[in-house]
Write a structure and sequence with these properties.
The chain has 515 residues and is an alpha/beta fold. The chain folds into 2 domains: 2-35 and 404-514, Golgi alpha-mannosidase II (Immunoglobulin-like, Sandwich); 39-400, TIM Barrel (Alpha-Beta Barrel). It is built from 10 helices and 29 strands. It has helices at 73-81, 129-139, 154-165, 171-178, 205-217, 239-248, 278-289, 291-305, 339-352, 387-395, and strands at 2-7, 10-15, 23-28, 43-45, 67-68, 71-72, 86-89, 113-115, 121-123, 142-147, 189-192, 228-235, 255-262, 312-320, 359-365, 375-377, 383-385, 402-404, 406-409, 412-415, 419-422, 424-430, 436-442, 449-454, 463-468, 488-490, 493-496, 499-504, 508-514. It has an 8-stranded parallel β-barrel with strand order 4-7-10-11-12-13-14-15, surrounded by 6 helices. A 6-stranded antiparallel β-sheet has the order 18-22-23-29-25-26, with helices on one face. Helix 6 (239-248) runs parallel beside helix 8 (291-305), helix 7 packs parallel to helix 9 and helix 9 (339-352) runs parallel beside helix 10 (387-395). It binds alpha-L-arabinofuranose.
């Protein structure tokens, strides 16, 4: 018996046959591409939290760890390789206690502060505006600055914008020049506060909307720089926050943010990043996929106020949130990253690609050593690329490519917390050179799936690519064994008469290029 159902935004035909049907059928609509997947969907976030900045991105010029003007050289190279389009900084919750003037000028004279949000660590401000914006230039990515609305003044934020972006003879531009930077930086994205409903000031949406209007007024466009101002948006299921901001701020914002974590709850244990069972894995997939419904519902509210989609939705924090690794500092949010996390990344991208008419950015939390990170480092010079890093790299072919719709017919499974998940997830795009890429995730932990893709008129004869899988879902990379989970060449795809057949091993993620 077959049943058609809408699972998320995608039409899934679920087979209810009791026999194990380890196959899926897809149809690619190669001529129906309308929207471009903005590269910012592959965005990153770096907060002054744990060892994300200090030890992760920055060790200082005098460190015994190999560095390029203070930035860890190994981390810099790994990031350059996987195309970072946009990087958020300095928080997170940290942003609403950050006073940017403490982080400029001679390092020895910069005042220290207590990082109250994250473990009470002493922050010496040696990584500040210059260090961040120069890093963005080195990575060739857009900076996304989060301004302090919670505990900072309008004047402070207005001057920060002037300091970074004014090229004229203005007081802040002069101060910047005194500090060694002649030319203004380009800063496009400006967050006006962060989580203003929580760590950013515990505000009500009406009050925040007024504050937004006031702060944003004085954040000027200097010279050729054009700011894209982002209002501090909702957490997960708080649709009322989005509604009020749309009503009260409307076109005075270019975008509104949203945060969604794959987390079991905010109190008690969140579960281990590496000690979990199959049931936990499938629960994770269900919770991760629920973001589609959340995006849809926020988008529907935005549509009712802004049918022309002038205001963007920016998912500027997402990813898995597990218990901190035993033995690490409380409040530093250091967690391992297993093959399961790789699925959260691939499935999230498959969803994000479908909503880029409104969703213009997504920043995973966070880039190094915090939550679902790309990279883990230690203070002995060790560096590990996580399974999530590998997914970002395998998927970077979709950056700025035209999204191609796919119909998916696959098995589904009921999982904990009354969710139903498909056993296959997929996405496709056509890049600027006309090359089609298809990414496929076989969610099934135990069974191979034969995937048949009707290419409908695509004249390709060969499909080549990479696969990411491992013996166990809990497998992960460590400083001692950094290559347990890494992509390898994939030879399980064949094309014959416009039909692509792929043999996907259990728990595997594949990206293919059609030639
Ligand atoms: O990413 C960690 C924290 O999660 C951020 O600081 C905050 O914005 C969110 O609650």
């Amino acid at each position: 018996m077959n049943k058609k159902m809408m699972l998320g935004g995608m039409l899934v035909t679920a087979s209810l046959s009791l026999s194990a049907q380890n196959s899926a059928t897809l149809t690619l609509h190669a001529n129906e591409g309308k929207t471009v997947i903005p590269k910012e969907i592959y965005g990153q976030f770096a907060e002054h939290l744990g060892t994300c900045i200090y030890g992760g991105l920055w060790v200082g010029e005098n460190s015994s760890i190999a560095n390029t003007n203070g930035y860890r050289t190994d981390v810099l190279n790994a990031l350059k390789e996987f195309k970072v389009p946009v990087l958020g900084w300095p928080g997170g919750c940290f942003a609403d206690e950050y006073h940017w003037m403490d982080g400029i000028g001679p390092k020895a004279q910069r005042p220290k502060m207590v990082n109250n949000n994250w473990g009470g660590t002493i922050e010496d401000n040696s990584f500040g505006t210059h260090e961040f914006l120069n890093l963005c230039e080195m990575l060739n990515c857009e900076p996304y600055i989060s301004g302090n609305v919670g505990s900072g003044t309008v004047e402070e934020l207005a001057k920060w914008v002037e300091y970074m972006t004014s090229d004229g003879d203005s007081p802040m531009a002069r101060l910047r020049r005194q500090n060694g930077r002649d030319k203004a930086w380009n800063v496009k994205y400006l967050g006006v506060g962060n989580e203003s409903w929580g760590c950013g000031g515990n505000m009500r949406p009406e009050y925040y909307s007024d504050l937004y209007r006031r702060y944003a007024t004085y954040c000027r466009n200097y010279d050729s720089n054009r700011l894209f101002k982002v209002a501090s948006g909702a957490s997960d299921y708080d649709y009322e926050w989005t509604r009020v901001l749309m009503e009260q701020i409307g076109n005075q914002m270019h975008g509104v943010s949203l945060h969604y974590y794959t987390v079991s709850g905010w109190t008690g244990s969140k579960g281990s990043s590496i000690n979990f069972d199959k049931d936990d894995y499938y629960w994770t997939i269900g919770k991760c996929r629920e973001i589609e419904d959340v995006i849809k519902r926020h988008c529907a509210i935005m549509d009712s106020y802004d049918p022309q989609k002038r205001i963007a939705l920016l998912l500027d924090e997402w990813g898995t949130w597990w218990d901190e690794e035993p033995g690490t500092i409380r409040g530093h949010l250091y967690q391992q990253n297993a093959l399961r996390d790789a699925f959260v990344a691939s499935l999230s991208f498959d969803i994000f690609h479908r909503y880029t008419d409104r969703l213009k950015m997504a920043n995973i939390a966070q880039i190094v050593n915090v939550l679902q990170s790309m990279i883990l480092t230690n203070d002995k010079g060790g560096m590990v690329l996580t399974p999530t890093y590998h997914v970002f790299k395998m998927y970077n072919v979709h950056q700025d490519a035209t999204y191609l719709p796919l119909d998916i017919n696959c098995k589904t499974m009921d999982v904990r917390d009354n969710r139903s998940i498909p056993m296959l997830s997929a996405t496709a795009s056509k890049d600027k050179a006309g090359k089609i890429h298809i990414s496929l995730s076989n969610i099934d932990a135990d069974n191979e799936q034969t995937v048949t893709i009707n290419l409908q008129g695509v004249k390709a004869t060969k499909a080549t690519g990479e696969i990411l899988t491992a013996k166990n879902l809990t497998d992960h990379n460590t400083f001692e064994q950094p290559e347990v989970v890494k992509p390898t060449a994939f030879s399980g795809a064949k094309i014959s008469k416009e039909v692509l057949t792929v043999k996907l091993p259990a728990k595997s993620i594949v990206t293919l290029e059609l030639n």
